[in-house]
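Summary for the funding panel

The consortium committed to producing paired sequence-structure records for every protein in the target list. Below we show the first two records in order, beginning with the earlier of the two.
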Amino acid sequence: MKKKPAKRRTDPPYVPPPVEMMTALAVATFIAIAALVIPARTLAASAPITVDQAYEEMAHRHASLDPASAGFTRDEAAYLSRLFELVDLAIVEKAQAWTWYQSEGKKGKALPEYRVRVDALVERLDALPAPGNLRQVQALLVDAIRDQRAFFETWSQALEVGARGQDNREVYKSRGLHLKASSQKLHQAYGQLMDLFPNAGQQNFDAFYDHLCVLDLL
C-alpha cells in the first residue's frame, strides 16, 4: 500500500485581540506602574505615628514617670519605667487601629497589622518580670489590651456582616462589651497604683492617670 505523505502542521493565522482586551491590558499596566510611584502624602499617611503624636491626637497631656521618687523602691521604679514604655506603645497601636476604622481605611493601620503588632506587644508585657505587689496591675493591663484587640476584631466582624446585608446589631453589642471590660480593668489598675504608691508625688500621680486614661477607649 502506498503510504500517504503526512499532513504538514501549519500554525493558525494570527488574529489580533479585541480592542477591549488591549484596553484592559493597557489599564492594568498603568495601574502596576502607578503603584510603584506612590505619592509622598500617601506614604506619610500610612507611616507609624510616634508616642507624642498619639497623645496629641487624643488632645491629652503626657506626664512622664519620675523613677527617682522616694515613693518607689529601686525595683519598683525600674519596673514601672519599663511598664509605661510598653503602655505608650499600646497607645500608639490603639490609636492607629482606631484611626483606620474611623477613616474607613484611609489612614492608620488595618486590623491584620494591628493584630500582629499588639500580640507581640502583649507577649512582651506579659513576660515582663514584675515585683510581687505589681503583678495584679500587670495582669489587668494585659487583659485590658486583649479586650481592646477583641473590640477591634468584633468591629471588623460587624462591618463584614453588614456588608452582606445581614443584621449586625448583636455583633456591635459584643463590641461594646469588650470596650467596657477594657475600660473597667484600666480603672482598676489606676486605683491599685494610687493605693500602692500614696507617696509617689504629683508627677507620678499624673503619669499614672495620663497613661491609663489615654490607653482607655472610653
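The next record, for a separate protein in the list, is shown here:
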Amino acid sequence: MSSPAQQPSGTSHPDPAPTGATPPKEPFAYVSQDRGLLTLKIREPILMGLFFLAFTVVGVIFFLMVKKGADQGAEGAMGVAYLILAIFGGLGVVGMAIAAVRWRWKREYVRVMGRSPWA
C-alpha cells in the first residue's frame, strides 16, 4: 500500500496511481452504463446489496402472508407462495451475489488506482 504524501498545507492524501497502472476489469459492467432497458442505476455495491437484501426480505414476507392464507384453506395458495418466494428470493440472491463481486472489484480498483471508479 502507498503511504500518504504530505502536502505543503499540511493535508495528506494517497499517492496517485502510478503511471501506466491498469485498472482491474469491471465485473457486470452493464450495471454502470447509462443505456439499456430496465437497467438499475445503483453503482455503489453496498447500496446494491442492501436493495437486493430488501427485495429478498419482501419476498419472504409475501411468502408468509400467502402461506397464512393457505393454512386457512385457500386452494392453490401454496403454489403461488412458492412462486413468489422463487421470484423475489431468486432475484434477491442473484443481485446480492453481483453486489458482492462488484464490492471486491471496487476495493481492488481503489487500491490500484487510488480513487473511486466513479470519481
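Regarding this second record: The chain has one domain: 28-113. Residues 77-113 form the longest helix (37 residues).
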